[in-house]
Amino acid sequence: MTSFCTEHGISRKTFYVLLARARAEGPAAALEPRSRRPRTSPSRIGEETKEQEITSHPIAFGSGEWTCVIGEFEGGGRMVTVAKWKDGAIAEEYIWA
Fold first, then answer.
1. Contacts from 47-52 at CB under 8 Å and sequence distance 24+?
2. Which of 41, 51, 70, 91 is the most buried (most CB within 10 A)?
3. Residues 9-48: pLDDT tens digits?
4. What are phi and psi of 73, to 5 degrees?
5. Other CB atoms closer than 10 Å to residue 70's CB: what's the count?
Protein backbone atom coordinates (compact mmCIF):
# COMPACT_ATOMS: atom_id res chain seq x y z
CA MET A 1 0.00 0.00 0.00
CA THR A 2 2.66 2.49 1.02
CA SER A 3 4.78 1.80 -2.05
CA PHE A 4 1.72 2.18 -4.34
CA CYS A 5 0.87 5.56 -2.79
CA THR A 6 4.47 6.74 -2.98
CA GLU A 7 4.74 5.62 -6.59
CA HIS A 8 1.58 7.53 -7.54
CA GLY A 9 2.32 10.61 -5.42
CA ILE A 10 -0.72 10.40 -3.13
CA SER A 11 -1.10 10.01 0.61
CA ARG A 12 -2.56 6.88 2.19
CA LYS A 13 -5.47 9.00 3.42
CA THR A 14 -6.23 10.14 -0.15
CA PHE A 15 -6.00 6.54 -1.34
CA TYR A 16 -8.61 5.41 1.18
CA VAL A 17 -10.90 8.35 0.34
CA LEU A 18 -10.72 7.40 -3.36
CA LEU A 19 -11.24 3.72 -2.55
CA ALA A 20 -14.37 4.47 -0.49
CA ARG A 21 -15.70 6.73 -3.26
CA ALA A 22 -15.05 4.04 -5.89
CA ARG A 23 -16.89 1.44 -3.82
CA ALA A 24 -19.85 3.77 -3.20
CA GLU A 25 -20.18 5.46 -6.59
CA GLY A 26 -18.23 3.30 -9.04
CA PRO A 27 -14.64 3.36 -10.30
CA ALA A 28 -15.12 6.27 -12.72
CA ALA A 29 -16.58 8.53 -9.99
CA ALA A 30 -13.44 8.12 -7.88
CA LEU A 31 -11.36 9.88 -10.51
CA GLU A 32 -13.78 12.74 -11.26
CA PRO A 33 -12.58 16.08 -9.87
CA ARG A 34 -14.66 17.38 -6.98
CA SER A 35 -15.34 20.94 -5.93
CA ARG A 36 -13.65 21.99 -2.70
CA ARG A 37 -16.35 24.58 -2.12
CA PRO A 38 -18.46 24.02 1.02
CA ARG A 39 -21.91 22.57 0.32
CA THR A 40 -23.59 25.01 2.69
CA SER A 41 -22.89 28.51 3.99
CA PRO A 42 -24.26 28.66 7.54
CA SER A 43 -23.32 32.32 7.97
CA ARG A 44 -24.95 33.38 4.70
CA ILE A 45 -27.61 36.04 5.09
CA GLY A 46 -31.12 34.82 4.24
CA GLU A 47 -33.37 36.55 1.72
CA GLU A 48 -35.80 37.66 4.44
CA THR A 49 -32.95 39.40 6.27
CA LYS A 50 -31.82 41.16 3.08
CA GLU A 51 -35.31 42.61 2.63
CA GLN A 52 -35.43 44.21 6.10
CA GLU A 53 -34.56 47.87 6.46
CA ILE A 54 -31.56 48.76 8.62
CA THR A 55 -32.66 51.43 11.10
CA SER A 56 -29.23 52.27 12.53
CA HIS A 57 -25.65 51.27 11.88
CA PRO A 58 -23.18 53.44 13.78
CA ILE A 59 -19.51 52.49 13.70
CA ALA A 60 -18.85 50.51 16.88
CA PHE A 61 -15.09 50.81 16.59
CA GLY A 62 -12.39 51.30 14.03
CA SER A 63 -8.67 50.81 13.83
CA GLY A 64 -6.64 51.99 10.87
CA GLU A 65 -8.34 50.76 7.73
CA TRP A 66 -10.77 48.41 9.54
CA THR A 67 -14.21 49.25 10.99
CA CYS A 68 -16.86 47.27 12.81
CA VAL A 69 -20.54 48.19 12.58
CA ILE A 70 -23.50 46.73 14.45
CA GLY A 71 -26.65 47.35 12.45
CA GLU A 72 -30.17 47.05 13.79
CA PHE A 73 -33.08 45.94 11.60
CA GLU A 74 -36.58 47.36 11.83
CA GLY A 75 -37.80 43.91 12.96
CA GLY A 76 -35.46 43.93 15.96
CA GLY A 77 -32.64 41.76 14.57
CA ARG A 78 -29.01 42.73 14.42
CA MET A 79 -26.11 42.28 12.05
CA VAL A 80 -22.38 42.83 12.38
CA THR A 81 -20.22 44.08 9.53
CA VAL A 82 -16.43 44.14 9.62
CA ALA A 83 -14.98 46.09 6.71
CA LYS A 84 -11.57 47.02 5.37
CA TRP A 85 -11.46 50.42 3.65
CA LYS A 86 -9.20 51.54 0.82
CA ASP A 87 -9.35 54.93 -0.90
CA GLY A 88 -12.68 55.78 0.75
CA ALA A 89 -14.46 52.57 -0.38
CA ILE A 90 -14.95 49.14 1.14
CA ALA A 91 -12.30 46.75 -0.19
CA GLU A 92 -13.31 43.71 1.94
CA GLU A 93 -16.49 43.09 3.91
CA TYR A 94 -17.62 40.33 6.26
CA ILE A 95 -21.26 40.24 7.43
CA TRP A 96 -22.92 38.15 10.14
CA ALA A 97 -26.64 38.29 10.81
1. 49/73, 49/77, 49/79, 49/97, 52/77
2. 70
3. 989 998 898 899 889 988 888 888 888 777 776 666 667 6
4. -90, 160
5. 14
